[in-house]
Automatic annotation (TrEMBL), chain A:
GO terms for molecular function: iron ion binding; tRNA N(6)-L-threonylcarbamoyladenine synthase activity. Belongs to the KAE1 / TsaD family. This is tRNA N6-adenosine threonylcarbamoyltransferase. It comes from the Bacteria. One of its GO terms (biological process) is tRNA threonylcarbamoyladenosine modification. It comes from Lactobacillus gallinarum DSM 10532 = JCM 2011. Fe cation binds at H117, H121, D310. Required for the formation of a threonylcarbamoyl group on adenosine at position 37 (t(6)A37) in tRNAs that read codons beginning with adenine. Is involved in the transfer of the threonylcarbamoyl moiety of threonylcarbamoyl-AMP (TC-AMP) to the N6 group of A37, together with TsaE and TsaB. TsaD likely plays a direct catalytic role in this reaction. It catalyses: L-threonylcarbamoyladenylate + adenosine(37) in tRNA = N(6)-L-threonylcarbamoyladenosine(37) in tRNA + AMP + H(+).
From TrEMBL, chain B:
InterPro entries: ATPase_NBD (IPR043129), Gcp-like_dom (IPR000905), T6A_TsaB (IPR022496). One of its GO terms (cellular component) is cytosol. This is Glycoprotein endopeptidase. Residues 32-169 form the Gcp-like domain. It comes from Lactobacillus gallinarum DSM 10532 = JCM 2011.
Amino acid sequence: MSEKKDIRILAYESSCDETSTAVIRNGREIESLIVATQIKSHQRFGGVVPEVASRHHIEVVSQITKEALNEANCGWKDIDAIAVTYGPGLVGALLIGVSAAKAASMATGIPLIGVDHIMGHIMAAQLKDEIEYPALALQVSGGHTEIVLLKDPVHFEIIGDTRDDAAGEAYDKIGRVLGVNYPAGKTIDAWAHEGKDTFNFPRAMMEDDDYDFSFSGLKSAFINTCHHADQIHEKLNKYDLAASFQAAVIDVLANKTIRAIKQYKPKTFIMGGGVAANHGLRDRMSAEIAKLPKADQPKVILPDIKLCGDNAAMIGAAAYNLYNDNQFADLTLNADPSLELPYAKSMLN
Amino acid sequence: MKILSVSTATNHLSVALNEDQQVIVEKNERDERNHSEHLDPLIEEILKENKLTLNDIDRFAVAIGPGSYTGLRIGITTVKMFASILNKEVVGISTLQALAKGVKEPALVITGLDARNDNYFAAGYISGDIPKNVIPDGHYKIDVLIKAIQEYAAQNKVDKIVFVGSGLEKQDEKIKALNIPYEYGTDEQNVIHAGLIGQLAIDAQPVDPDKLLPRYLRRTQAEVDWHKKTGKPFEPDSHYVEEV
């Protein structure tokens, strides 16, 4: 039997404040990963400024293309497909990756694959371990909070999402109140481990029987608590505030996700997105799943911390599945800032 | 020398193939909002019709700015990748110089792109095969631009001014007050032609594709506000991006 040919994908990601390229072999092996982050720039403004982000992306995109190929020790002739995030994200930022990938595809004749950024985040798990289907993913980031059902490697359905703020967005907003610069998640997570849940913030929609979330009420309760304390010149313990906030977020996420696992009985449970790097959330989800009867426990894949944030490796992983499904894009591929995974029928009412 | 040139600087998309000074074909799409969808297919169409591939092109040229920030980045990213991957030459041409080249008769050509609220990305050129810059490419309030024209006219003989680009007719009163014979560009002159960019590209100095970046001529509002608030100096952009 002849050995199956390796499939190498060069991937681009530029949807927000990271410009990244990677070479991924067979959807599983990272042969190279370059991430140029703009955090230092946007910290001047306390958050990502879209026009500034776009300007930084174009400064590095051709350079990091060469770096990804060099680091993987390969040339264009070794690449089987060029993949790129085409949405969701900031339109001007997405357009740099999309324009670069299309130009590269035209110049080399290598086929092009457009990848949904959220599908990419979820597929960071594939770089860690083999996913068995059906799988269920908790996708939590600055822009999204979703529970996603994966029927197979290319058919994903949202079964629950946030009605207002994303969880990561709430972290950044309460971070601002605590004087923590964006991105605030890592610091709040660390502080939470030093404090106790003493403030009993609301757990919105936790007992509802759908899989949707809401974090704006929690954010408001947090901000009101801080403002009130300010007015009466009371100093609140920032560690306890962080711990109370984080406990409320994690309680809701864990509660709903476990219920979804019980209903859909996935073979694999995955976490993805920037907030999947949160240690409190990772530990809690693992612990909750370990409490389920042995037969009902899905395999748990938590992506490497460094692959939770935006990166091209995850885009290359997702693109491999699309490659196998013959889902290629043509030169009219455009950025789609509000691209969404399909919703499950139960959500469409 | 085969030159492929592109302008995505305004809502008018233009792509041309030149052989030395001669424009072999130029294709334009007016008032088109999706350069990202249209640019590559238009390039491919031109190459196919001329039985060429990108590899047959000796030099790529692009409108480097000023113009729509997002628009500029689409064209520049595209040619920068072509040149980088295929090891070809690439040049960036001032959008305003390319506009000035559309005027054939001897004149002072004021080229301007409407940047709203009486602001223009504008410049002054003396018409010619290679229009000579006399008022630098910049972001001008209309009154500042008018003053720059007056100053130039005070020291140089100006028989006629041609105003080319977008939104300049709005300023007719101020332009009339200059008291110099003037006219406005024709519809053809008011849009950027990639064929003219290709002709200007012949004498331009090729640059490293990695360093080919838009000439925005304006910092972002966020940076300006940050600078005002903190008094901190602007560092080179590369200082703000780190590989991790």
